[in-house]
């Protein structure tokens, strides 16, 4: 594996700082808390941490509204705490990447305060300002977080543009001074020893400069109600078309390519740093752009069926290998969840076999070709918490969903709350469940955590109890992550599908010069007697292999591949 980079071999773990661990007992996660859990992360076996924004922020968008790019949020601690965290991680062989929000700052950022103060100040062109047209906004563009994309500023007699909340004004990336300022922030963290960045919301950084009116025909209420909550008042194709017609001018502009090239140059001023984009567009992966983008397409389904995964991998891997990247080629990156999406058990479970499916899904992410990204709490099987009171919501987007349903669509209170609670990102951002104690041991008994704790910590969904049980999900995570590390084929091997017609199970080889592994994921409740050496495959599979791992009881040692019995929902990994 000598020629792979650290980020190609690593298992990443996303920390959502507000909810990870609270050391100073104020109900909010912090850096000291995260430091205390570094041994836990080392024992879990992960190699790198992606930390969601840790910068000062008014928290209108839970940290994605940054008011200072070169400091630490006081709720989380100090810069010295951060250095201790970084050193502590490095000492344990764990790298740390941060979140880089390019598109917008907080409206409380000093840059914006200055920019909004007059039409004539040194930062007057740092954001996207336009004159009113006929006494109103410059065009009919919308914010993806609700309402118009324009906000009036009396001090300038002008409107500023925001793709997200009005408290998140878009930076003007066509201004070289903005680039320099943000690149200096990148250098600041790289100088401290940070190992890379996850680049937020890549698609939204540029919008069309001539800003023509969008040509969508649905009302914003109808568009959001159908587009966000999967309501079927219109066929999905219509909604998709309308979505593009409404937002097309505001996203995915070609200038992003040049910006990423500049960012990569800054990145490469430092040794061994890595950039991953919040985008599924593989064209951003290049030797002079990003190292990786996420395979979000894999997640865009209700059920992860063998057929879905095969098709996704086929398209993804052939797309990546067609890119002009030096050996070993553009590198895949797979994930099933993050702070913006439902918990894996809720998203991809069937309500009946969620535990079995959670194990299959982890095995999938750890055995497919590419760098896996895991989200904190998944390792103990945390699930979505559906809030029962709008006053408990902390995600401004969730509150807007509620208002959209209530006043925009005119739904009753109960229905509005139900839709908002199922779609707010609060549900998957609740505090980490450390033990079976008040607030799951996240914070002291007499303190209210910033977001309610999911009460299912009482029924075994907590770290302390799962650490003691060898059959727990947490133990399973540890075993599989260790297994991946010990078997080079699972990291560097090619992905070669076999039995491609199978509806119930996914089977593939991971094959490198040093080793070949067979992976079988039975995604059904049926059991089968399978012949992996049969001609149903163009790959040669030997008659016998050595059992590396099974999620079921199995005798260790040799396994007959001409008639292998595969149990319901079994994860089977065999060395050939
Ligand atoms: C990204 C973040 C999300 C945030 C948005 C705006 O999509 O993941 O949490 O709300 O960008 O910054
Ligand atoms: Ca705290």
Arithmetic mean of pLDDT: 97
Small molecules (ligands, ions, cofactors) in the structure: alpha-D-glucopyranose, calcium ion
> How are strands sequenced across the largest beta sheet?
9-8-7-3-2-1-11-10
Derived from helix and strand composition plus strand pairing, the structural class reads alpha/beta
Radius of gyration: 24 Å
Number of helices: 18
The rough form would be described as: globular
Kindly state the number of beta strands. Answer: 19
Extract low-pLDDT stretches: none
Distance between the termini: 18 Å
User: Sheet with the most strands?
Assistant: 8 strands, parallel
Share in β-strands? 5-15%
Question: What does this 3D model show about the protein?
Answer:
- By secondary structure, the chain is of the alpha/beta class.
- The protein has helices at 6-9, 17-20, 31-36, 38-44, 79-91, 110-117, 176-192, 220-229, 236-247, 255-267, 306-321, 344-348, 354-367, 396-408, 413-423, 463-467, 473-486, 488-492, and strands spanning 12-15, 48-51, 95-100, 129-130, 150-153, 158-161, 196-199, 274-277, 292-293, 333-335, 371-375, 494-498, 505-511, 516-522, 528-530, 544-550, 558-560, 564-566, 571-575.
- It contains 18 helices and 19 strands.
- An eight-stranded parallel sheet has the order 9-8-7-3-2-1-11-10.
- A hairpin with a 6-residue loop joins strand 12 and strand 13.
- It is globular and about 75 Å long.
- The two termini are 18 Å apart.
- Bound molecules: alpha-D-glucopyranose (GLC) and calcium ion.
- Residues 22, 24, 26, 28, 30 line the site of calcium ion.
């Amino acid at each position: 594996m000598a020629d792979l980079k650290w980020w190609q071999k690593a298992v990443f773990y996303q920390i959502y700082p507000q909810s990870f661990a609270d050391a100073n007992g104020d109900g909010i996660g912090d850096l000291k808390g995260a430091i205390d859990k570094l041994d836990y992360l080392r024992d879990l076996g992960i190699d790198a941490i992606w930390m969601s924004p840790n910068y000062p922020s008014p928290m209108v968008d839970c940290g994605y509204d940054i008011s200072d790019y070169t400091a630490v949020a006081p709720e989380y601690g100090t810069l010295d705490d951060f250095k201790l965290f970084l050193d502590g991680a490095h000492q344990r062989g764990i790298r740390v990447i941060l979140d880089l929000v390019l598109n917008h700052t907080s409206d409380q950022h000093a840059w914006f305060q200055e920019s909004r103060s007059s039409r004539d100040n040194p930062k007057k062109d740092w954001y996207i300002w336009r004159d009113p047209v006929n006494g109103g906004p410059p065009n009919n563009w919308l914010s993806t977080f609700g309402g118009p994309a324009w906000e009036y500023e009396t001090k300038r007699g002008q409107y500023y543009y925001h793709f997200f909340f009005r408290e998140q004004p878009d930076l003007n990336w066509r201004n070289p001074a903005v680039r320099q300022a943000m690149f200096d922030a990148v250098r600041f963290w790289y100088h401290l020893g940070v190992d890379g960045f996850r680049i937020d919301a890549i698609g939204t950084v540029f919008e069309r400069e001539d800003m023509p009116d969008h040509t969508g025909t649905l009302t914003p209420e109808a568009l959001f109600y159908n587009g966000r909550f999967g309501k079927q008042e219109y066929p999905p194709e219509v909604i998709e078309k309308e979505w593009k017609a409404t937002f097309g001018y505001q996203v995915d502009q070609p200038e992003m390519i040049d910006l990423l090239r500049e960012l990569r140059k800054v990145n490469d001023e430092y040794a061994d740093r890595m950039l991953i984009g919040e985008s599924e567009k593989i064209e951003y992966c290049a030797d002079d752009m990003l190292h990786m983008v996420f395979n979000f397409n894999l997640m865009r389904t209700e059920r992860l069926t063998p057929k879905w995964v095969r098709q996704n991998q086929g398209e993804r891997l052939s797309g990546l290998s067609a890119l002009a990247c030096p050996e070993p080629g553009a590198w895949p990156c797979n994930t099933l969840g993050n702070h913006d999406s439902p918990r894996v058990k809720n998203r991809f479970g069937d309500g009946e076999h969620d535990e079995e499916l959670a194990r299959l899904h982890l095995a999938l992410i750890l055995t497919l070709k590419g760098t896996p990204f895991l989200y904190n709490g998944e390792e103990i099987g945390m699930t979505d918490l559906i809030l029962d009171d709008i006053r408990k919501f902390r995600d401004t987007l969730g509150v807007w969903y509620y208002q959209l349903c209530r006043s925009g669509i005119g739904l009753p209170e109960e229905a509005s709350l139900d839709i908002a609670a199922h779609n707010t990102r609060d549900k998957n951002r609740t505090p980490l469940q450390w033990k079976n104690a008040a607030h799951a041991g996240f914070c002291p008994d007499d303190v209210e955590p910033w977001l309610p704790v999911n009460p299912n910590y009482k029924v075994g969904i907590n770290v302390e109890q799962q650490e003691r049980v060898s059959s727990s999900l947490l133990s399973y995570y540890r075993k599989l992550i260790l297994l991946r590390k010990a078997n080079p084929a699972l990291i560097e091997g090619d992905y070669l599908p076999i039995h491609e017609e199978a509806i119930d199970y996914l089977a593939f080889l991971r094959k490198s010069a040093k080793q070949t592994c067979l992976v079988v994921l039975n995604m059904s409740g049926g059991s089968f007697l399978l012949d992996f050496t049969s001609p149903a495959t163009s790959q040669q599979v030997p008659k016998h292999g050595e059992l590396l791992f099974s999620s079921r009881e199995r005798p260790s040692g040799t396994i007959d591949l001409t008639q292998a019995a595969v149990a319901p929902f079994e994860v089977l990994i065999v060395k050939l």
